[in-house]
Structure formats: C-alpha cells, structure tokens
C-alpha cells in the first residue's frame, strides 16, 4: 500500500467517524427534543443518547490516536532507511542495500542499490590497484641501496627500506605505522635523523649539513642526509617527509687521502722553497759579488715566484688543517687596531709597488677588545687587503677599518674600488679553488675559503657586498 492510499483511507476513516458522531448526536438531539421533559421516557432516552455518543466518541478518539501514531511512522520509516543507507555509504560500507516496499520509494531503492553496487565494484578495483601500486613501490624502495624513510605529518613511519632498518638496527614490525618520536626515545640514530628533519626546514638554522658518522657494514661509514617534503601547497593533501641517506664513505676516504697527500706535499715543498730563498739572499749579497741588470731581474723573478709558491703552500697547509679538523685556536685578548696595523704592514711593499693608497677608518671612541687567535685573524685581514690591492686599479685606494655594532659585535672591513664581483658569484667565491670566470689576476682560489673557515671557527661571519663597477667590501664580524 502506497502513502497516497494510506493517507486517503486514514482521512476517510476520520471523516466517517466524525460524520457518524455528528449524525448520532443530531438524531438523539431530535428524539430528545420531541420528547416531553415531564415524560417518563425522557430520562432513559437522555441516558441512552449520552451512552451512544460516549461510545462512538471514545471509538473515534481511539482510532484517531492509533492513526496519529501509525501514519507518521509509516511515512518516516522509508525516509529513515534511506538516511541510514546514505550514512553507511558515507562510512565506506558499500555492501548496504535498501528493500523498501512502498511504491513511491521503489525506484529510489533500485537506484540506491545500483549506486552501492557500482561503488563497491569501484572500491574493490581501486583497492586492488592501490595494493598493487604499494607492493610495486615497496619493491622499488627496498631495491635502493641507500637508506630511505617515509614519515607523515604526525611523524608516523609510513615506509622504510631494508637498508634503513639495517643501520637503525630495527625490525620492520617494530617501526611500520609506529610513531618515530616514540621509537627515537630508545634509538639515538633515529633521534638524530628527526632532529635533522626539523633543522632542514628551520629558516633560522644556518648550520652546515655535516655528514652523519654511523657504524654500518662492520665499519665506520659516513652518510649525507637529505630531507624532502611531500604534498602540495594549497591542497588538502597532508604533508609528509622523506629522509634519504646517501653513503659517502668512499668519497670521505678519498677526501681524507687527498687532504693527507696535500698536507704531506706542502710540508715537503716548504723545505726546498726556503732553501731557494736562502740561496737567493746569498746570491744578492754584494759580498759574494755584484749582479748585472739582467741577473738582478732574473733574481727578482725567482724571488717573486718563490714567494708566491710559499704563499700557496701555506694556504694548502691551512686548508688541510681545517678539513682534517686539526685546526687549533690559541685565543688571546687583542685590539682590532693591532690586527689592522699588521695587515697594512704585511702588504706595504705590494701597495707601494702598485701605488695603492691604504686608508684607515677607525672610530675615535673606545673600541672593545677581541678574544681571538690573533695570528689567524691577522692572516684573514692580510689576505683581504692583499686581494683588494690586486683587484684595484693602479694609483687607486682601499679602505680598511673597524666599527662596533649595537649588539656588541665588532666588524672589520676591507673595501676596494675595483671592478667588483658579479652577484651570481657572491657565495661561490668562498668555495675551495673557485675563481671568478674571466679573472686575470693570479691566485690559488683558496684564500677566501680558508679565511671564511678561520672566521667561522671563532663563531663569526665573513660576508661580501659588491656591485659590478663599484668595487667590493668584505666584512669580518666577531663577538667583542
């Protein structure tokens, strides 16, 4: 029976009962009106009329209450079934089906069941594809010989390959779908990796990404960590992280061998170079005999090239100290002006040769003192002044000075007015052996990189400001 028929029957019954009740009341009222009030039949007639009206009225009330309960329930039931079915589908229960007997909802029921079947088929096929893709990805990840770890935004481990399990000394069932932060409480290496993830995306962190030293393959190995974010910005897709560890042990060993070789060669070269310079001094001594102009020119050439070679070997030795971690600082209290005067004195001959005027800018007010290895910081300033002279035009000028900042740091700077450095190379010039393309001035490409290492070893910074055609200014910043 459909809803329309139910409504018609129920309303018809109510109307019929009301008509019956009204008719009965009218009939009894007419009978009572026709009867004399003093007649013996008036009392029983009135009583009889009240009984019939009460019985019929009671029946009408009972039927009305029954219809009031049954009719809304019969209409609400299919609607509730549809609502519950939609909720089940929303909760991914694609096996839900509707079996509504009402003709009005029969078509709705068929369409709902057809939709649920299609969703179930699609979900089954999609789930199978996802599982196949997952197995495929796991096979690829496990075939990679470098450790890989995947994390979601809540730092839950989503995947991890065999290499990563090996170096972490963990079992797959111990970590998969577990909180990495909880596991890190009892695993030092994983704790270092998670700290590396935070540092990778911390804009305030300026520390170098140093290799991780890990005991793997029964020996000490070195790994370079790289962290990448997953997920797209501007979408509802949650972010995650992928940690990649590249084994650089072989390169580290080669680099160590290179450093040892350079250090050894540099030490060995200093002895014959010193012997050459000593012999040259004896040769130029007038007591041995005077040199003609051509011989004097050759002697000067030997002197220049020997000095240059000695400077290069000294730079190589400094570089090997930094790379091998054997750089030893001997700090003492030093005035900035003493370092500046040393750098000027060390470059006086070179400045006079090119007729370069060296200007000093030093504040009149009292400057703080530095607690640094004065020999190494003086070397840095000497190298900066030497570069400024070499890259300045003849008869030009350079400025060396110092100033105190508001945050109690001391800045020493060297400014030249040469051709300047292209902004593209402002970072590269501090790398080993790098020289700006097109530079004709001779150099090893080590001076600035070693200078930066020396300054950073003191907790300071070495930066450059330069524009093409306007010269360069190198600023050394140290804590007072």
UniProtKB/TrEMBL annotation:
Q: Which CDD domains match?
A: HAMP, HATPase, HisKA
Q: What are the residue boundaries of the PAS domain, all occurrences included? A: 133-179
User: What's a GO cellular component annotated to this UniProt protein?
Assistant: plasma membrane
Check the record and name the Gene3D superfamilies matching this protein: 1.10.287.130, 6.10.340.10, Histidine kinase-like ATPase, C-terminal domain, PAS domain
BP terms from Gene Ontology: osmosensory signaling via phosphorelay pathway; regulation of DNA-templated transcription
Transmembrane stretches in the record are: 7-29, 49-68
Where is it localised?
Cell membrane; Membrane
Keyword list, A-Z: ATP-binding, Cell membrane, Kinase, Membrane, Nucleotide-binding, Phosphoprotein, Transferase, Transmembrane, Transmembrane helix, Two-component regulatory system
GO MF entry, a single one: phosphorelay sensor kinase activity
**Record-linked InterPro entries:** BphY/WalK/GraS-like, HAMP_dom, HATPase_C_sf, HATPase_dom, His_kinase_dom, HisK_dim/P_dom, HisK_dim/P_sf, PAS
User: What does the record give as EC number?
Assistant: 2.7.13.3
A single Pfam family, by name?
A: PAS
Give the Histidine kinase domain ranges. 264-480
**Chief location:** membrane
Q: Which reaction does it catalyse?
A: ATP + protein L-histidine = ADP + protein N-phospho-L-histidine
Q: What is this protein called?
A: histidine kinase
Native source organism of the sequence: Bacteroides finegoldii
What lineage does UniProt assign to this protein's organism? Bacteria, Pseudomonadati, Bacteroidota, Bacteroidia, Bacteroidales
């Amino acid at each position: 029976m459909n809803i329309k028929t139910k409504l018609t029957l129920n309303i018809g019954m109510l109307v019929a009962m009301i008509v019956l009740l009204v008719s009965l009341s009218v009939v009894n009222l007419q009978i009572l009106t026709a009867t004399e009030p003093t007649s013996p039949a008036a009392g029983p007639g009135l009583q009889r009329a009240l009984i019939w009206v009460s019985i019929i009225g009671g029946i009408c009330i009972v039927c009305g209450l029954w219809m009031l309960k049954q009719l809304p329930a019969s209409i609400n039931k299919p609607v509730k079934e549809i609502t519950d079915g939609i909720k089940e589908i929303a909760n991914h229960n694609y096996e839900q089906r509707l079996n509504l007997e009402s003709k009005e909802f029969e078509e709705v029921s068929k369409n709902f069941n057809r939709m649920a079947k299609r969703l179930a088929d699609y979900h089954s096929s999609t789930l199978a594809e996802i599982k196949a893709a997952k197995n495929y990805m796991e096979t690829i990840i496990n075939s990679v010989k470098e450790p890989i770890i995947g994390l979601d935004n809540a730092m839950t481990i989503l995947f991890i390959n065999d290499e990563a399990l090996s170096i972490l000394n963990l079992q797959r069932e111990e970590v998969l779908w577990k909180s990495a932060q909880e596991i890190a409480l009892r695993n030092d290496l994983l704790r270092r990796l998670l700290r590396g993830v935070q540092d990778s995306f911390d804009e305030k962190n300026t520390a170098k990404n140093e290799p991780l030293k890990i005991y793997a393959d029964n020996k000490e190995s070195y790994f370079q960590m790289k962290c990448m974010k997953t997920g797209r910005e501007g979408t509802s897709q949650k972010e995650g992280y992928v940690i990649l560890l590249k084994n650089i042990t072989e390169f580290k060993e080669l680099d160590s061998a290179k450093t040892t070789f350079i250090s050894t060669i540099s030490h060995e070269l200093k002895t014959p170079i010193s012997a050459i310079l000593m012999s040259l001094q004896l040769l130029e001594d007038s007591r041995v005999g005077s040199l003609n102009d051509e011989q004097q020119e050759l002697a000067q050439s030997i002197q220049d090239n020997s000095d240059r070679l000695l400077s290069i070997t000294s730079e190589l030795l400094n570089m090997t100290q930094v790379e091998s971690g054997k750089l030893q600082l001997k700090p003492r209290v030093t005035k900035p002006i003493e370092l500046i005067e040393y750098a000027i004195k060390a470059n006086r001959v070179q400045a006079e040769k090119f007729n370069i005027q060296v200007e000093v800018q030093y504040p009149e007010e009292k400057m703080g003192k530095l607690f640094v290895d004065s020999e190494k910081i003086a070397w840095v300033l000497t190298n900066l002044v030497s570069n400024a002279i070499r890259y300045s035009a003849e008869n030009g000028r350079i400025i060396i000075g110092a100033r105190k900042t508001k945050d109690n740091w001391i800045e020493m700077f060297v400014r030249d007015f040469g051709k300047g450095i292209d902004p593209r190379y402002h970072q590269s010039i501090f790398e080993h052996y790098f020289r700006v393309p097109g530079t004709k001035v001779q150099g090893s490409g080590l001076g600035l990189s070693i200078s930066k290492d020396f300054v950073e070893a003191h907790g300071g910074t070495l930066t450059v400001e330069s524009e093409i055609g306007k010269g360069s200014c190198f600023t050394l910043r140290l804590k007072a």
